[in-house]
Amino acid sequence: MNKQFWISAIKRAIHTMAQVALGFIGTGLVGIADVDWKHMLSVVFMACLVSILKSIVIGMPEVNNAYIKEDNVEEVEVVEENNGEEIK
């Protein structure tokens, strides 16, 4: 887990926190003054924790793909078959 991993994990956690907060507030059933802020912040920070733990356990495609360099990619010849004849 390098610096790029933690930057990506924190960005992902912030996005998750914003989505949860918008879902909690944006239902339209309550006014901004009626929101139980303590409960909402508890839910938002739990979502943040889950997001970071998920990033650690599962990994992140944007970070994992960063290690693939074009030098390491081999060209693969694709051969198709057409009624028994090979077409290159």
Give a structural overview.
- By secondary structure, the chain is mostly helical.
- It has one domain (3-64).
- The chain is built from three helices and two strands; from the N terminus they run αααββ.
- Strands 1-2 form a two-stranded antiparallel ribbon.
- The longest helix is centred in the first third of the chain and has 23 residues, at 3-25.
- The chain starts with a helix and ends with a strand.
- Residues 66-73 have low confidence and may be disordered.
Quick structural gist:
The chain has about 90 residues and is mainly alpha-helical.
Strand order of the largest sheet: 1-2
Number of helices: 3
Low-pLDDT ranges? 66-73
N→C terminal distance:
43 Å
Q: Helicity level, as a percent range?
A: 55-70%
How many strand segments? 2
Q: What is the average of the pLDDT values?
A: 76
The shape is elongated
Q: Give the SSE string.
A: HHHEE
- Kindly name the structural category: mainly alpha
Percent of residues in beta strands? 5-15%
| Structural Rg | 23 Å
List the helices and strands and how they pair.
Layout: H1 3-25, H2 37-58, H3 61-64, E1 80-82, E2 85-87
Antiparallel strand pairs: 1-2
Helix pairs in contact: 1-2
Q: Which short descriptors sum up this protein?
A:
mainly alpha, 56% helix, 88 residues, single chain, elongated
